[in-house]
Amino acid sequence: MITEILKGMFITFREIFKPPVTIQYPEVKRPVRQRFRGRHELRRYADGLERCIGCALCAAACPADAIYVEASENTDEQRYSPGERYAKTYEINMLRCIFCGYCEDACPTDAIVLTDAYELSAFSRKDLIYTKDMLIVPPPAGKPGTPQKVEEGAYNRSILPEGLVSEP
Amino acid sequence: MKTVRSMVLVSNDPLSQARGAQAVYQRLEQEIAARGLTDEISLMTVDDVGRHDTVPMVIVYPEAVIYGPVKPDDVAMLVEEHLYKGRIASGLLAPARELTGRIAWLSARKGTLPAEQRIVLERAGLIDPESIEDYIIHDGYVALGKVLTQMKPTDVIAELEQSGLQGRGGAGFPTGLKWKFVSKAPGDRKYVICNADESEPGTFKDRLVLEGDPHTILEAMTIAAYAVGASEGYIYVRGEYVLAQQRLKKAIEQARALNLLGENIFGSAFSFDIHVHAGAGAYICGEETALIESIEGKRGEPRSRPPYPTTHGLWGKPTLVNNVETLANITAIIRNGAAWFRKFGTPKSPGTKVYTILGNVNVTGLIEVPMGITLREVIAIYGKGMKNGSSLSLAQTGGSSGSIIPASLQDTPMDFESFGKAGVSLGSGALLICDDTTCVVDLAKVLLNFFRNESCGKCTPCRIGTERAYQILANICEGTGTRNDLAQLTMLADSLTALSNCGLGQTAATPIRDMFKHFSGEVDAHIQLKVCPAGVCSMSGRRL
Amino acid sequence: MADLINVYINEVLVSVPKGTVIVDAAKKLGVNIPVFCYHPKLKPVGMCRMCLVEVGRRKIDRATGQPLLDANNQPEIAWGLKLETGCTTPIEEGMQVRTQNEVVKKAQKDVLEFLLTSHPLDCPVCDKGGECPLQNLTLQFGPGTTRFDYNDKQHLDKHYPLGDIIFLDKERCIQCARCIRFQDEVADDRVLGFYERGRTMQIDTLSEPGFDSKFSGNTTDICPVGALTTRDFRFRARPWEMTHVPSICTHCAVGCNLTLGTRRSARDRQWEILRVMPRQNEDVNEIWICDKGRFGHHFTRSQARLTTPLVRKNGQLAEATWDEAIKLVAERLNVVYGHVVGFIGDRVSNEDAYLFGKLFREGVKTTRIANRPHVAGADLVQKYGVGSGTNLGALGKGTVVLIVAGDVEETAPVYMLRLRAAAQRGAKLIVANARETKMDRYAANSLRYKVGTETQLVYGLLNAVNQGSGIRDQVAAYTPAKVAEITGVPEAEITAAGKLIAEAKDLIVVFGDEQPYDIMVNGQYTDAGRALPQACANLVVATGHAGKANNGLLSLWPHNNTQGVFDMLAANGAQWTPADGLKALYIVGSDPIGEGQTLPKSEFTIVQELFLTETAKQADVVLPALSFAERDGTFTNAERRVQRYYKAIAPLGQARADWEIIRMVGEQLGLKWTHYLTSEGVMAEIAATVPQYSGTEYAALAQVTEAWPPVGSNDLYFGGTAYDNRGGVGVQIKSGVELDGQSEMNWIEPPVPSAESTLHVRQLNRHGTLIDQSAVYQPRLIDAPIEPAQVLKGA
To answer: Exposed, middle or buried by CB within 10 Å (0-12, 13-18, 19+), for A12?
Structure first.
């Protein structure tokens, strides 16, 4: 009998000396995989203009109907994005989102990107509807945010040349 | 009726005007009056005579003596010597040089070929175009009288069908058949239109008829109207032909005054009137349906066919549209009969053709020759050989919508049938003769540039295809063309022909296709070696 | 149809009428030949070259005129050397057409490739994206790749205002000229044209102010790309996000069928109408609507709308509950038994008007209801109106349309399009008016009479026709010569117009109210106001043109349901008598004070409205009603077609449908009205009890018939972008004559104008309570009743 016990304890003792697998979350955070899909963000161009042109293709692609976009028209006095159209309202219902990344695939300007952030809890359902203010990244250092007053006719295309090249 | 002893012409092109042609004209007027010769001498101005080194020029007929440059102070002596005393004022003669300008037709060249006859240009230059009397003296309105008094409309059409006259606008459609279609088309109102919107680059044969012999057009249109049952006619004249418009209007007034136009012509029950409509500079309006749209006051855009103008033309009524040169044949055919007409030219393409010779030949200008003459003959006899003894490299027939032909085709008879077999378009009769200093790619580029500017924009293939073809050709000329460009160009040429609505788009492909067909070596040189054999293209390495 | 011709399309036989073009014939067979420039309502031009097909014709033996036969005894076919445009080539007997072989496919690919070389790839931001013919046809027929350089595209102005409302994106335009041709051929406002030529050709407006047409919005529907957009809908939503609900336009008596594009906004959780498009109904508006109908929908979501009942407390209107308000209303209506008067506007639905009449008949026990604005002749139209089966779109040779005292374009714009098209098909229009109107352009006879003499003119025409048994003696006095003297219209023209009427196979008499006489004076209907409708009725009766399809009276009523409200009140025996010493006044959907009139004196006033109008401000109780988009119901249009509209957006606040409010009042008054659960129930009762309205149950109104041209579903490219009619085409009810066969003529002495009489003129774009809520339409609205030069006075 004692041998049986020792046999069983052997496993235990052996494991005692191995390093622990438990990660002390939230003190310690495990790095995510390269292709991990977490919280969304809306990107900007290098000059601070928003990439999103309010085309709502992300909303159309969304299998969970989690995205809501309302577009409006840019003027050179108040320019949010290149071209004529920008997203006046951009909302993602994080309760609905299934993080499939189809929105990212559908986006013609690489505006919406799924980041690594996954800590998305909140105390009310309402707080989980992420609005455009929450989703959009701050403008690059030293660049103005939006809306900007720009030179007339400088941004008459919906996509800037740098937007034609997909970022890594 | 006034008969004159001499006709004095004063050149009146812009350059002549700048050098005092106006003053010369006034002094001539004064001097002739001062000597009491006003009744004997007719004084008039002519447009550009094609020679700018000795303007202002004074030309005196019937001797066809050319003086120039003439200063107002010389006029008194000129009148004294030549018109009063009948001696040539040799001190004022223009430097003896073969006249290279557009007046070349004036020196008679009859009899150099068998059965040569001036039909279209029968009177142009020989009569006073502003005098109906002069026209009548030269057998004018005889044909109309014969038609109205002795012939039924069907007889006229039958005569025309027998003559085998084909449309001289470029397509060569049998004129008699066209008249028959219009005459058979149901409708209480029909129209006759004379297409005088001559805008093929390098062609000015119609202008000569319009300016030199306007009454023949009026007479022919009246005959046509009688034959098809039309009551109203329009002459659509190219906007730049100001003198032609003036002469036509004057001729119409004269004809009306003598009741050769208007109500009950010659006392018969037949009534017909003609209006002159000036174009506004659009090449496309030479296309008959676009021309009709333009007369109706709309944008000059070709209609889609069918229905054809013969049944649904101007204002939706049956309409006969004939080119000036075609109409200029009519009176002679009626006067002399179909059998007479068939003596000229070839059996399948009877009659004569007026050509404009341009390019690297010693003599350029207008000629009227029988159908079936070869290009080699034209160059040798009328062009007096190639310039500087160079050899023929290529020729372009029929203006921009014609064909580019290589030297190997210079012995093909120039008539509708033979050219049709060789895949060449006779077109408007412009003959651009080029030696080896002309690059075929550059020529095609120039032509496509013309087409893209003149495309009306109505149908998609032509609107976009001509622009695109021009860009590719421009790239080839800049030395940046690729093999892929050639494939695209071939495809474009096919699409243009297959898909375009009207002749403009369809023929825009001809230069490209001819270029590939006859000059592929030259094109290859541009692509592969980046060299222009003729040394014309800039080969800058720029890409549009 | 006579003259059917057999053609084979892709080897399949189809028989179509002579003159049909290949594209239409194929469409009837279900074969789609792609088109951009062709539109079945416009003349073909063959510009885009997308419809190229291979055509073969029978070889004909020249000697016998018979087709040559091959070994199998089949006609020999000579295939054309070149492809032909299917949109311009009419079919011929025995013609063979190939639409799907390699040659044709290559042509389609090439044309699309050409078009796409100059078309920007901005589908993500384009309003047409998702319902775009170019997108769809590219996927269906286009090449996968382009052989041309990307940089070849032209960069042009993307924001070019053609007018106040329509914008042009010059890059997107594919130069199909559909917009130009619509303006020229359908609207007859030649305000668009091409500038430049070749590759630089572009659309521009020719008018000042730009795009000056009442029908400009239609061009955005038929544009096959997103080149034309409206200020109203520009960038508002993607088409697939919207719910499309069938509805009926409420701005005039034509009753155009609409499709409302609606969406619920995430911002305020409110439903709203994003755009209005025409819904195909070949009997009413075909596929067109006017700009007022298209852009005049903003009142449905106006901030100024009433959302709660208001009750006057201490001299001020204060918010109240429905219970409170309804109890108060019932109390006051009950107490003053008999001394109550009702006014009902003619914008409300049939259900509302029916219940209102019934409330007065059964609950208040009075018949003193007036419809507002006061109209004359609704009873005559009910009796002698155009017969059931009438279709203005089918009028042609043999039909005469007499238009008297009405400006069709200003009062019923779509009728102008339809009557103009009828004139082009061979119908003869006689246009009689005191001033020039657009209809004069299409008139066979234009009669310009002196202000106020329209009735005399109608009798002059009747005299010229030489009929009128019942009133022969009176009409006999109005000889053309005498009428010419009174009206100032030359005698010859009267005789000529009379001759046209006498020879007419079908006769429709369209009358308006553009005359100087008041219909009501001191609370009494006047004879002068009624003289013209009566004269018109006499004309159709005397000439035997009453009670048949495509024959009878057609009135240019002021509002969308004038006829329906009249019918409903008449069914409840409502009768107007002048009122005085009132205890209560109940006004539904009408603003007499805002229109500059006075109300009869009353101790208590109830107003049921959308807005706090001038009248509502005076009221003791204001009950908030629903707009047409928030409820369902039916309207009866000027042709007496009963049409159904559907709830498109959620109700605003606590507002309720008019019929529901009236039902609540009725129940409070003690009527057993619990069975009126839905408007459908009310309509079922109308259909059962009102003889003329039999067969107008909701289910019947929702029937859809197959229509040509097909629009909607997959056919975005053929008839323009539209959504198929899923709401029904309605039912045209029978006229009184058709029901009882009785007709009679009455004589009202034609009134004589005085020097003071001024023409009453209605205009489409005049300011008004509802249209003022549409900011986008403001630039088009006008203040002046009519241009001073055109104000006309009597003799």
So the answer is: exposed
3-state secondary structure (DSSP) of residue A97: coil
Three-class DSSP category at B196: strand
The number of C-beta contacts closer than 8 angstroms across B and C is 91
What is the count of structural domains for chain C?
3
Size (chain A), residues: 168
Strand, helix or coil for residue C344: strand
Q: Is the pLDDT of residue C787 over 80?
A: no
| Helix, coil or strand: residue C731 | strand
Asked if B457 and C148 come within 8 Å (Cβ–Cβ), the reply is no
Residue C208 lies in a domain: no
Report yes or no on C319 lying in a domain: yes
What residue of C is the nearest CA neighbor of A93? C266
Q: Is the CB of B467 less than 8 angstroms away from the CB of C115? A: no
Neighbours of chain A (3+ CB pairs under 8 A): C
Residue of B nearest to C89 (CA): B306
Please name which of A62, A70, A119 lies closest in space to residue A93, comparing C-alpha atoms.
Answer: A62
Helix (H, G, I), strand (E, B) or coil at C27: helix
Tell me the Ramachandran region of residue B513: left when phi exceeds 0, alpha when psi lies from -120 to 50, beta otherwise: alpha
Q: What is the pLDDT of residue A22?
A: 87
Cα gap C399→C430, rounded to integer Å = 11
If you average pLDDT over every residue of chain C, what do you get?
90
A70 Cα to chain C: minimum distance (Å) = 7
- The pLDDT value given to residue B538: 84
Most confidently modeled range among B169-178, B349-358, B518-527? B518-527
- d(CA C80, nearest CA chain B) in Å: 12
Q: Which domain holds residue C351?
A: 310-378+563-694
Residue C666 forms part of a structural domain? yes
State the average pLDDT over residues A1-17. 88
Instruction: Kindly report, residue by residue over C138-196, the tens digit of the pLDDT.
Output: 998 988 887 776 666 788 888 899 999 999 999 999 999 999 999 999 999 999 999 88
CATH number of the domain residue C15 falls in: 3.10.20.740
- Judge whether B69 is closer than 8 Å to chain C, CB to CB: no
In this predicted structure, the answer to whether residue B106 has a pLDDT above a threshold of 70 is no
Task: Inform me whether the C-beta atom of residue C503 falls under 8 Å from chain A C-beta atoms.
Answer: no
Subunit contact C118:B464, Cβ cutoff 8 A: yes
Which chain C residues touch A85 with a CB distance below 8 Å?
A: 125, 235
pTM of the model: 0.88
For residue B136, what pLDDT is reported? Answer: 87
Cβ of C266 within 8 Å of Cβ of A91? The answer is yes
**Nearest residue on chain C to B457, judged by CA atoms?**
C198
Domains of chain B: 6-97 (3.40.30.10), 132-342 (3.40.50.11540), 352-412+419-435 (3.10.20.600), 440-529 (1.20.1440.230)
User: How many angstroms separate the CA atoms of B106 and B99, rounded?
Assistant: 10
- The structure tokens listed for B281 are 């500079």
A56 neighbourhood in chain C, CB within 8 Å:
237-238, 241
Chain A contact residues (CB < 8 Å to C):
53-57, 59-60, 68, 70-73, 83-85, 89, 91, 108-109, 156-158
Q: What are phi and psi of B159, to 5 degrees?
A: -60, -45
Fold of A32-143: Alpha-Beta Plaits (3.30.70)
Q: pLDDT of A84-104, one tens digit each?
A: 999 999 999 999 999 999 999
The residues spanned by each domain of chain A are 32-143
pLDDT of C606 over the 80 cut:
yes
- Indicate the residue of C52, C148, C197 with minimum beta-carbon distance to B457: C197
- In a shared domain, residues C577 and C682: yes
Whether residues C235 and A89 touch (CB distance < 8 A) is answered with: no
Length of chain C equals: 795
Question: Nearest chain A Cα to C241, which residue?
Answer: A60
Q: Which of C679, C694, C709 is the last residue of a domain?
A: C694
Cis check: omega of the bond before A168, within 30 degrees of 0: no
ipTM: 0.84
Kindly determine whether residue B464 and residue C52, on different chains, have CB atoms separated by under 8 Å.
no
